[in-house]
Amino acid sequence: MSATRSRIRLDGEGATLAVLLVFVAAVSALPVGRLILEAFAPGGRFDLSVIASVLSAGSTWTAAWHSLVTAGFGTAISLVLGTLFALLVALTDMRGKAALVFCFLLPLMIPPQVTALSWAQLFGPASPLLITLGLAPPLGSPNPIYSREGIILLLGIQQAPLVFLTVRAGLRSLPREMIEAARSCGARRLSVLFTIVLPMMTPPLVAGAALAYVSSVGNFGIPALLGIPAGYTVLPTLIYERLASFGPSIISDVAVLSILVGVLAVLGFAVQSLITGRRDYRTVGAPSQALSYPLGRARPLVEAGAWAIIVLILVVPLLALVATSLVSAYGVALSEKTVTLSNYAEVLFRQDATVRAFRNSFFLACGASALLMIIAVPFAAFVVWRPNRLLRGLAALAEVPYALPGIVLGIAAILIFIRPLPVFGISLYNTIWIIFFAYLARFLTLSLRPVVGAVQQTDRALEEAARMTGASYLFRLRTILFPLLAPAAAAGAILTFMTSFNELTVSALLWSAGNETLGVVVFNLDDGGYTVLASAVAAVTVAVIVAIMGVTALFARLLPRGVLPWTN
């Protein structure tokens, strides 16, 4: 054995790498492999009859078509809305950009089931807000949000921040040479925008659209709350309904449906590669702010228009949600006589399920974010400072569970843990730990990305100096790497906590009695007709999210640039 290998093994570097390898294989490779095995070899024997049965069912292709329609049109809305706000924030002199970015990104942080619930309370004859304002439609009128169009609209609003983030990042790195050359030749601003800026932004635009599409295909909360009452089924809700009906081959059936969801999601990335691979979009020049359009007299009008959109897509639905949470019964007007805080007292202090859900969600979110923060620091250092095929493959493997729809990961976790673990004889099925495992797999890359970015910006000299003096790897990890990367690791932990605290898509399939999460409670309360209680829980979760985002925004200067997406 060489001296180098001996040293790596003795100082703990090899052991740390082995732990990372086992961890990523367990949370990334194992779920995908188990899902494929169940689809093609149910019961351990190769058999294509289940695949043939699922693919020959009309309900499968109806749901698949609905998924494509809602995800496709929702992505179109996201593309228009996200690009518009990215251009305004990155290229103009409008005021209040930080607040605008904060508000525009808030729908991405709000759980989809809460978004759907808030919009559902905004329309229909029973809306407390509309009744209070005297704008409620006649009794018996259908709620227009419970429809295909309602699902498309909310998917577009929910995923628009993804397009915004990718396009804004592209605009910030756009070199100015071509822009200045065109303007010096007399080209007008709009001409420069449409002939130079937007064509050069094709990769970010396509990447943002792909992310929005994939997120829409795997979204469960919005189609469940709005589609199930309307009888409009997409693949994630079809999987949920199939799991609710017991049968000898149900697990194999939903495994096939989950792979179909994954295939539809992969189509988004395939189209992205096809579009961006046809041309070379590389640019030469120093990245800088490409344009700075003074809006002049139009600035107040543009600012008013931007904030009007925020009010329509964010403020008004949340007002409807709060109004519903403050009345004694759904359909009652909000007034001095009817306003009450009893719904909040009920869900926060008296109902065992909701109190337990707050506790479970807090435990799961804190536990997952803390463990992944510890994993992310050495993982990022290995990937950036010791690049090789193994580590590049490991980093790519960590991305898989996040790229796949959450419903697919939930089914994979069921398949892994439905039987007791070998050797240990312990079953995680119907326990809170199966949700914890799924969160670790789902949010690993969310914790990893900010730390990788920080490592890329960090000078390695201090760590190398400590290594040359004979400091062990674990000592360097504890005294150098963790202190240096703590801000980025904390930012990744915050993102993980906020995303997992109100998660529904994964936990909707994995929860059991006593192990409910907040997302599940909101969905079950609304599904059971307890609309005012569901609205109270949803309002509390939104308040928690806004508080966390607000506090972290105050300390954004202490964090590496770009790790908190809601800061400008």
What does this 3D model show about the protein?
- The chain is built from 25 helices and no strands.
- It is globular and about 75 Å long.
- It has helices spanning 3-10, 13-40, 49-55, 58-91, 97-109, 112-122, 128-133, 148-172, 177-184, 189-200, 202-217, 221-227, 235-244, 250-276, 299-325, 342-350, 352-385, 389-403, 406-417, 432-456, 461-468, 473-501, 507-510, 518-527, 531-554.
- It has two domains: 1-39 and 340-568, MetI-like (MetI-like fold, Orthogonal Bundle); 48-279 and 302-327, MetI-like (MetI-like fold), CATH 1.10.3720.10.
- It has 568 residues and is mainly alpha-helical.
- The chain is 72% helix and 0% strand.
Task: Please name the fourth-level CATH homologous superfamily of the largest domain.
Answer: MetI-like
What assembly state would you assign to the polypeptide chains in this entry? single chain
Report strand %: under 5%
| Overall number of structural domains | 2
Total beta strands: 0
Output the CATH topology of the largest domain.
MetI-like fold
Tally the helices: what do you get?
25
Which sequence of SSEs, written as H and E, runs from N to C?
HHHHHHHHHHHHHHHHHHHHHHHHH
Q: How large, in whole angstroms, is the Cα Rg?
A: 25 Å
Write the CATH architecture name of the largest domain. Answer: Orthogonal Bundle
